[in-house]
Structures are given as structure tokens and as C-alpha cells.
Design a protein that fits this description.
The complex is a heterodimer of chains A (about 220) and B (about 375).
Chain A (H helix, E strand, L loop, with lengths): L2 H4 L13 H11 L3 E5 L5 E6 H7 L17 H4 L1 E2 L10 H11 L3 E6 L2 E7 H11 L7 E8 L4 H11 L4 E8 L6 E8 L5 H9 L3 E3 L9
Antiparallel strand pairs in A: 1-2, 2-3, 4-5, 6-8, 6-9, 7-8
Chain B lengths: L1 E6 L18 H12 L8 E2 L6 H4 L5 H11 L5 H4 L15 H20 L3 E6 L20 H13 L3 E5 L6 H6 L6 E8 L23 E6 L5 H19 L3 E5 L17 H19 L3 E4 L10 H12 L11 H7 L24 H24 L1
Parallel strand pairs in B: 1-2, 1-3, 3-8, 4-5, 4-7, 5-6, 7-8
Classes of the chains: A alpha+beta (about 220), B alpha/beta (about 375).
Chain lengths: ~220, ~375
């Protein structure tokens, strides 16, 4: 999946000469925490975040409603030359950038111009969708050895039962690095026959497992 | 006026996928036979289920889908041709006359509605109904037509009623919920095992309705391994507060009996106690808020020998104000059915105590459920204060 598919392509923006008060108002009205700052040609000059504004403002405990900071221009406190992404970046790569650089948003730039924005919320939603809970189904978790061909053996059993697989996730096993946990969502109310066959083939089906208790 | 009627026609037994399918309406025969054995069900209490008309089915279903179900049941379609309608799958295989049998279950629930709304009885029971996973244009999870959705629309159109739907099946009542998700005049309440593992996967507390209907959809997902006390605590608080909030004209309860420890398809640890208590409170609140108007339907329940007959008998006994028996089940009933049953019967109305090994992390499961309840009811609790 590429960034273009998940980005917001109509982001709210600011000009460098907008005031901090205007930035704050826009954030509150639109319920966003990050705003790209662009010039007339849509070149990204910076990013201003809710946190930058909070740090610049005097403490809310002090009674200073007319602080000069409110009328300062955003270019004075924005992050200049921020990290940017490209519409063709892979979502996985971008997720890693967010994690490593500890950032909350990424302006997406193409042809030198701002074309969208991705935030941690967009990424989180994408990962929720990946777990496949959009259609009715049952979930089966299977502990398997981390060796080639295992997924094939398992999908053979699903195929035998004409079971439509909605999603497959592979997690590391926290107890043993030689293993993986497969989390499969399958379109059936009655997974019993599948589970029985998986167990007969020697697979360790965790259905469901009580956290921290082996059943 | 009668206290309650028992809606049933032998044609309802025609809703049968195969001999090995877990959804098995032999449950109806077993339950009725148990009730007759203790003298709690008389032929005069039984009202035949009518068949729902096509016009009635259209209250909840697409014409194209009804056509597919008809043709599939008359051998005119292959599995591949109806797969995109959820028919001909492992869950919902094609069987002969599937349209007629499904329409008969819907008709039973409509018969129950008419008996109550026309004042023939205070309450009515159609154990053949409760097919809560059926969608507008697609079968899902053993359900072809959604009798509750049709019945609620029928209640709205014919009787202009404000309906509370209560679903205590261990699976989330998704089909009914989505049908009325934007309707402020129908409130849906479902208590079910969390969708973490269990079908259909929905029923999160954050599913609260949409648009005009926001705030009239309530979900109480409980953890796998939940036991009686925690189940009943959630049920009782949820019921009282939602009744008080919504003030329905009539209540329709879906009484799936698959939250029991023995049920093969779910992971809840209920015992017979919950099936004694669930109808008791529904009955009481129906009198408090709805002038007694209470329609009950069946639902899931896949241990058809040890669990469903006892559970559903207690539902009928409660509806008719008959004393719920204790001690031994009638020997004649046990002798009649034991040879067919693949498991030894529990020979008493109560479950043995203890029924299962103690559950590790019981206290944490209870705590988590209590926290869930707080969050799910927060919306009406704050509204009340303001």
C-alpha cells in the first residue's frame, strides 16, 4: 500500500505570515494538531504543531490573555525544513519514519508542491483495517514454527473447508523466537471443524487463549 | 387475555441445513417435549406460526436476494451462483425449500407480534426465530431471513411502536443492529462475547448508532471465560438503565442459549442460572415500562441436548408465571431422548456445582467487564446528570 491511498489530500495550511493565534484557532476548529506552512507556490516551508504553540505560549496558569506570542508570525516558531514524504512511499516505510524520528505528521510533497499530509492517526487506522474486521468472521490464532511452507500447510486446511480467509497477520511469539503466531480471520460462524483438522495436523491452535495461561 | 402464547408450526422444523450442521431446530421438539412432560405447555397455548408474505420480507430484505433464496431452494442455482449472497457456503448451505422454511420462521415472529399487539396475549414466544445475523441482501452465520428486523419494521409500520431489541445470544446481534443503526425509534442492546475471537467480530462499545440514531445502539462485549455473576451484573445494569433511558412501547428479546459453558461454539462460562435470570428481568421490565408487551424469540444454542431444552423451558415458564422447577428432570423425557443424544444428559434443572474447573484470572475478567459496562453506559449516565 502506498501513501497516496491513505493521505489526506486536502490538508489545512498556513502562510508564514499567519499569526500564532490564527494557527491555534484553525487547529481547534478543525480538530487537527499539525499544520504545514506553505508559500504561494505551495512549497513546504515548515510545520507547526500544537506542541510548538504550547511551548511558545506562557503558562495557562499565568493570567496573560494578551501575550505578544499570539500575534507573532508562525514562521518564528515553526519547524523549518521538516521531513517530508512522497505519494509513492510505502506505508510501512513511512510508519518506520514516524517511529524512528518520533514525529506526528509528514507533509507529502510531489513536484516540489504540497499534495497531502499523513498523521499517526491515519497510520493507526490503516493498521486497524489490516486486521480485517470489516466483515463478519471468526478469528483463529495458531502458534507455528518459523519455517518455510507452514502457511501453505495451513491454507490447505482452510481450502479443504471452503473457508474464505479475510486476513492473515504474523506476529512474533513473545515466548519463543523459533515460533510465530498466525492470526487468521475466516468467514465462518463455525470454525470447529477447521480447528479440529489443524490440531490433527499437529498445529498449536490458541482458540482463544487466556492471557498468561496455557489451556 | 392470556398470559402468553407459544408460537409453533411443525413446518418450522424444515429450516434444516444438514444432519451435521450445528444449527439444529430439533431443539424445538426437545424443548416442547420437556415442557409437555412437566405439564407446562398445553395445546391451547400453542398458536400456529404463519408464513411471512413476500411484502413482509421486503421490509428487511432486497427483492433480488429473496429471488436468489427461492431459486436456490428450488434447485435452480449452483453454489457458485449464490456465494456472493452468503448462500451455499459452509455456514449457510443450500437446502430444499429454504425460502419457505425461512419465511415460516419470520412468520412465527410476526404471529407473535400480532398476538401481543392485538391484545390476545401479554407475551408471545417464537423459539424458531432469532436469526439475528441475516443482512438486507446476504445470509450470514446460519441466518437467511432476519425475523427480528422484519418484525421490528412491522411493529413500526402497523403499530407505530417504539421498540427495544435485547439480544443475549453469545454472538453479537449484528444484522439487527445495522438495520436500525440510523433509526432513533428503535434501540438495540446486545450482550455478547467480545469479537476478539468470536464471530462476527463486531459489537464494540463504540458502535453507538449513526446520524439520528446515534445513542440508540448499545453493545456490551464481555470477555471469554465470563461466568454467571459478571454476566448477570452486566445484564441487569444494562437492562435497567437502557429501559429507563429509552422507554420503549414494546420489547423484543432474542434468547440465544449459547453463552453456556457447554456450548461448543463460544467461550463464555455461563450456567443454567443465567437462563433462569435473563427472562425474569425482561418480564419484570416489560411490565414496568411496556404494559407487559414482550415478544421473545430463540436464537443460537448449539448444545441442543444438555443446554437448550432446559434454558428455553425456563423462558416459557417465566413468561407464563409458572414456578420454575428444581431437582430432577422428568424421567420419561430423559428416557425418551437419551438414546439419541451423543452426550449424557444433565438430569436436573440445575447444573452440577461446580460445573467446571476454577477460572484463572477470574477477578481480572470481572474487573474488565465492569470497566466495559461503565464505558458503554457513560453516554446515558452523563446525559441524565446534565
Amino acid at each position: 500500500m502506498i501513501v497516496e491511498e491513505i493521505m489526506n489530500d486536502e490538508p489545512y495550511t498556513l502562510a508564514p505570515t499567519n499569526t500564532v493565534l490564527e494557527a491555534l484557532k484553525l487547529m481547534r476548529e478543525r480538530k487537527v494538531r499539525h499544520l504545514p506552512v506553505i508559500d504561494n507556490e505551495r512549497h513546504v516551508l515548515g510545520v507547526i504543531t500544537e506542541r510548538d504553540i504550547k511551548e511558545a505560549l506562557p503558562s495557562s496558569l499565568k493570567d496573560e490573555p494578551n501575550s505578544p506570542v499570539f500575534s507573532a508570525m508562525v514562521e518564528e516558531i515553526m519547524i523549518k525544513n521538516p521531513l517530508v514524504g512522497h505519494p509513492l512511499d510505502f506505508v510501512e516505510e513511512v510508519a518506520l519514519t514516524f517511529y524512528e524520528a518520533k514525529i506526528g505528521c509528514l507533509p507529502i510533497v510531489s513536484g516540489g508542491k504540497l499534495v497531502g499530509i499523513v498523521t499517526t492517526t491515519d497510520l493507526l487506522y490503516t493498521y486497524i483495517e489490516l486486521t480485517g474486521a470489516t466483515e463478519p468472521g471468526s478469528k483463529i490464532e495458531i502458534r507455528v514454527s518459523d519455517t518455510p511452507g507452514v502457511l501453505f500447510e495451513i491454507t490447505k486446511i482452510f481450502n479443504l473447508h471452503h473457508a474464505n480467509v479475510q486476513s492473515v497477520l504474523v506476529y512474533p511469539d513473545s515466548e519463543n523466537t523459533q515460533n510465530k503466531i498466525l492470526s487468521v480471520r475466516v468467514k465462518t460462524l463455525n470454525p470447529l471443524a477447521i480447528i479440529e483438522d489443524l490440531r490433527q495436523e499437529g498445529f498449536d491452535v490458541l482458540w482463544p487463549n487466556l492471557p498468561g495461561v496455557s489451556l | 387475555m392470556k398470559k402468553a402464547v407459544f408460537v409453533y408450526s411443525p413446518e418450522q422444523l424444515g429450516y434444516k441445513f444438514s444432519d451435521t450442521h450445528p444449527f439444529n431446530h430439533k431443539r424445538l421438539t426437545l424443548t416442547m417435549d420437556l415442557l409437555k412432560n412437566i405439564g407446562a405447555l398445553d395445546d391451547v397455548d400453542i398458536v400456529p406460526a404463519r408464513i411471512a408474505t413476500e411484502e413482509e420480507l421486503l421490509l428487511a430484505h432486497d427483492p433480488k436476494y429473496i429471488e436468489i433464496v427461492k431459486n436456490a431452494g428450488h434447485g435452480k442455482l449452483s453454489e457458485a451462483q449464490c456465494a456472493s449472497y452468503g448462500i451455499g457456503t459452509e455456514d449457510t448451505p443450500i437446502f430444499e425449500n429454504m425460502h419457505e422454511a425461512s419465511a415460516q420462521l419470520v412468520g412465527g415472529t410476526l404471529t407473535a407480534v400480532d398476538c401481543v399487539m392485538e391484545g390476545k396475549a401479554q407475551h408471545a414466544l417464537n423459539l424458531g426465530g432469532g436469526l439475528h445475523h441475516g443482512f438486507r441482501g446476504r445470509a450470514s452465520g446460519f441466518c437467511i431471513y432476519n425475523d427480528s428486523t422484519v418484525a421490528i419494521r412491522y411493529l413500526q409500520e402497523k403499530y407505530n411502536a417504539r421498540v427495544l431489541y435485547v439480544d443475549t445470544d453469545a454472538h453479537h446481534g449484528d444484522g439487527v443492529q445495522w438495520s436500525f443503526y440510523e433509526d432513533p425509534n428503535v434501540c438495540t442492546l446486545s450482550i455478547h462475547e467480545t469479537g476478539r475471537y468470536l464471530f462476527p467480530g463486531t459489537g464494540n462499545i463504540t458502535e453507538r448508532g449513526n446520524g439520528q440514531g446515534y445513542g440508540t445502539s448499545f453493545n456490551f462485549p464481555i470477555d471469554a471465560f465470563t461466568e454467571d455473576e459478571s454476566f448477570l451484573e452486566i445484564y441487569e445494569k444494562a437492562m435497567r438503565e437502557v429501559f429507563e433511558f429509552f422507554k420503549p412501547d414494546v420489547v423484543l428479546t432474542q434468547n440465544g442459549a449459547d453463552a453456556h459453558y457447554f456450548d461448543p461454539l463460544t467461550h463464555l462460562y455461563g450456567t443454567m442460572n443465567i437462563y433462569r435470570e435473563i427472562p425474569k428481568l425482561a418480564h419484570k421490565l416489560a411490565h414496568e415500562y411496556c404494559d407487559g408487551k414482550w415478544i421473545a424469540v430463540g436464537g443460537g444454542g448449539y448444545d441442543i441436548w444438555r443446554v437448550v431444552p432446559r434454558a428455553w423451558s425456563m423462558l416459557w415458564l417465566e413468561m407464563t408465571d409458572q414456578k420454575i422447577p428444581t431437582g430432577a428432570l422428568p424421567q420419561a423425557w430423559l428416557d425418551r431422548w437419551q438414546p439419541e443424544a451423543p452426550v449424557p444428559f444433565i438430569p436436573t434443572w440445575e447444573d452440577p456445582n461446580p460445573l467446571y474447573e476454577p477460572i484463572p484470572r477470574k477477578a481480572e475478567i470481572e474487573e474488565k467487564n465492569a470497566q466495559m459496562l461503565e464505558k458503554a453506559l457513560h453516554i446515558i449516565r452523563t446525559e441524565k446528570r446534565s
